[in-house]
Design brief:
The structure holds two protein chains of two kinds. Chain A is of the alpha/beta class. Chain A has nine helices and nine strands. In chain A, strands 1-2-3-4-5-6-7-8 form an eight-stranded mixed barrel. Chain B has a five-stranded mixed sheet, with helices on both faces. Classes of the chains: A alpha/beta, B alpha+beta. The interface of A and B includes residues 134, 188, 190 and 191 of A.
Amino acid sequence: MISDIEFTHAFQPIIDTETGKIISYEVLLRGPHNEPPGYVFNEVENNNMMEFDQKSREQAISLASQLGLDCSLNLNFTMGSILFDNGRYVEDTIRSAEENGLTAKQIVVEILESEIIDQTEDFSMVLSKLRRSGVTIAIDDFGSGYAGLNMLADILPDLIKLDIHLMQNIHQDGVRQSIVRAICSLCFDLGIDILAEGVEQKEEYDFLKKQGITIYQGWLFAKPGFESFPEASFPE
Amino acid sequence: MSGLSHLIYASKADNDITENEILEILKFARKNNEEINVTGMLLFDSGSFLQVLEGEEEELNKLFNTISKDKRHMDIVKIVNEAIPERKFKNWSMGYASLSKSELSRIDGMNDFFQGSSCLTDLDKGRAKKILIAFSEGRWRLE
């Protein structure tokens, strides 16, 4: 039974170095004593996954609202749940946000790049409808190698989150640098924001900053806060 | 089903285009757009145009079709055509700004967008703003 599963959330800051502000928190699933997501997912039966996922988002929104959220909230959607019933779970999520005193504009919908690959047309249609509600569309793990760049033409997200593996030691890796430079140029042309995720070293940050990236998430700036909104440190 | 959308394109001005012709384009656009409830913004710099059009999807596609046939510009490249939640230029049937420091910017009504209360940095965040900034920094110039 979903109602028997105990879970809660942690929040990790997403910062904008241009304004020096936290612009959003990503919601991360946790067990009741800060156990990792796998601990909770073990309790969920496969056929209940989308329903549990929705319950988890609604509980996270309620907690974020109680904590006094005054920026955006990045929410993940489990495989299949964005396309399900023509975007119903996203609409329910928006409704839940509004019931908790938040707005659709504060909601960032994160879609895995790997999920889009075979279904770009379906995503394009559903996202077009959802976009009119004011939510921000983000592609998670961008550049992890599943989808080609032409996927951007169909989806045209507001934001991409660069894949963590692209960031690792990027200051020493010419191939990764080249990929990131190309993505930056493309995104700048098309009005897509770029978020560098999983940045852990100052040297990585220095390279990314030079490419014009201003939005970051990672331990270098702030670790996730268990049931709380942690402060972030802004590098020079 | 139709709904609110924006369409953003870049083009190259005809080499012989005069300041008067740009004024005429604007005058016509403002009158016409008001009738079909289209709003937006036109940027001009060193022979390149970037235009943002906002309105009902079907109206926009018809209008873009007409615009594409206009002989006063060429190499028309559609950058974005997508659904939007709200208008960013709702008070502008067609705002205009010239980025070139030419005579144009001194003519009345020609640089209204940046002279009014709004300017690029005041614009609500969103794709239109980001692409306008990219253009003002030298992107989307069609050689």
